[in-house]
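pipeline/complex-builder :: batch 7 item 3
reading input block
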Amino acid sequence: MIALRAFFEGLGAVLRAPLVLAAVLLLTLLAALPFGVVMSSRLQAALADQPPVTPGSEEIDADWWLEFRRHAEGLEATFTPTIIGFAAPLDNLSAVLDGTPRPWALALPMAIAIVVWAFLWGGLIQRFCTGGRRGSRPFVAEGFAWLPSFAAVSVAAAIAQLVLYLTVHALLFGPIFSALAALTERERDAFLIRLALYLVFGAGLAAISLMADYTRIDLATGASPSLGRAVKAAGAFLARHWAAVAALFIMTAGLLGMLMVVYGVGEAYGGSRVAGWRGIAIGQAFIVLRLAFRLTFVATETRLYEQLSPRR
Amino acid sequence: MAVALVSTPLAARQPAPPLPVLAGMGDFTTYVVHRESIARPSGVPLELVIASKPDGAAHAAAVSTMASTALAKLDDWLGPTALDRVVIIDAPWRMNPGAPLPPGVVVVHSRWHTLSRDKALERAVIAGLTRLYWPSVGGDWFGDSLARFTAGRAIDTLLEGSQFYSDRYLGGFVAHTIRSVSLSPIARDARPRLRRYAELDSPGVTPAATIAQAARGAEALTVVERYLGWPAVQQALRAFRSRHPGGGTIQDFAAVASEQAGRDLAWLFMDLFNPSVAFDYAVSALESNASTSTPGRYDVRVVLGRPGAGVFAGASGDTQVGTARSLEVETRFADGTVARDWWDGRQASGTLEYVSASPAVSATIDPGLVLILDEQRGNNRIAVDPSWNRLAARLALGWAIWLQNAMLAYSGIV
């Protein structure tokens, strides 16, 4: 019940803060824009060298993609048909769950994203906590004030996740999956086994992520005077209230999952009608909704911490 | 002339022949066997046996339909297969043959999750059946090249407009098709088909070097097709297969093609099929200056080069250098006129000069993409003031959305 209450309070706080969502969207776009400009200039040159597109075609053909990928290096190597429509979030989800290595060229955009969110966490916690101050100045001030600490939390969490991938993930999806899948000839059964392993690994991913989240919340709400104590406090909070934390996480993640299903089904039945510029608009709208869910995570976790933390 | 094959199911009371034992794949005792007799113009029927998984009835129907259609097309192009029985086995998803398949046997893998626009199963059927027409003696890369080339063409012809780019996610179990990226454009689209389908890789044990050479050979045959045209190549394939039923060499094929074309085409089967030879033709410079000899007009100079070692000769060795029509050069001018010339690919460099009413805006070597093996297409064209391409901007926006998704995904777990 507490988790449910925190969920609705947090969701309500996000819905009452459309300007915050707009600001977060703007920052996200600005973070991606420089790389988009670089890619655009490369594509301008490549399309000038390639044969002309069939008149009236919404996209370019597969041969063009394959030929481009043959010579692509660095960031260009990520320009594949999987950037189109629902394939984009599906590709990223699959890469996270399967531990698919990404080109090193993506390290810079990911680092920028982590820094941006380390900044945003400070402003968002301040905004969504009970009695939090509104306005751009407090938001920005809190964001910069907590940036170094929150960036350190992100780096520590990234290292922990890397260790998780190199150990647990390698074990689960290497020898364990191979042994279990060999027990069945049916591909569907093998997929169900893999789904179960995704849940196991996902629990580990979520645990580290939640640890980082509540460490930030503990710090920003002033509950702990130092980063070290905040980490301990967050660990104690998770251990004591794991059921409520898990319930809240599942509720919010479940909504995000439903959003992805709607997107995927909509595209499957929409066919080519959701291609071209319409596809771009739909894709960006999905990003907006995804950002809204990200804010919901922050807001609901902040409210839950306020309700359950003994120091409040 | 198109060949139509008529298939009829064989009576269930007729004893089913045993399925072949394939190394590393277990037995198929639980499989459902479907048999058909396909009537051929030669009068000798072909027995088509399809062994499918117990819950794979839908896939078996798709395999049967595709097999009948593919056999008709391949018989039409290449002449009838010598086999009187073909066995197609829809094997479990993880099992692959540990050795080359016996004659007349094709192995495909239907997947649990597949979409109607993902034609991977159909491609596998076409590719597997095509290999039956090109017996490959161990290590024979040219036979493999012929099989890849013919199978790729058959796939594009039979699945024209119905197959789209697909990828598999979540461990390869979940398929997703991108409806807006077509794999087989309509026939009147003059752009080349690269046909790099994964299903064209030969099953069983094959040295990596042979695979690489065979893949190069298949692309070289595509260049031959773009240079000579499909009707000429198809006739050569049919004649070659008729004269060399057990498999022949590239020199044998060159001789057949030359005989069919009525001219020496040996040059076409040299550098193109050598994987260590890189092709690269380029437009090195494009200059437009006010003409000093003709007031009011422009002296246009197009400088061509051959940075790569590969030579696309366009003619046999005894033809005078500079006279062969190897590669087309297209020069466009500001007033809309277009000049088309030919350049002898045996030359390391060359110059085309024009006196025109307006300056040149672009020059392109091989605008029709005959030589698809050109390693660096970026230097094939010079445009004075390239126009802004709206499609490139939209594609970049699409990529930026993917990047935002990636940023959210990875920053969300730390």
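note: The first helix of chain A runs from residue 2 to 15.
queue -> next item
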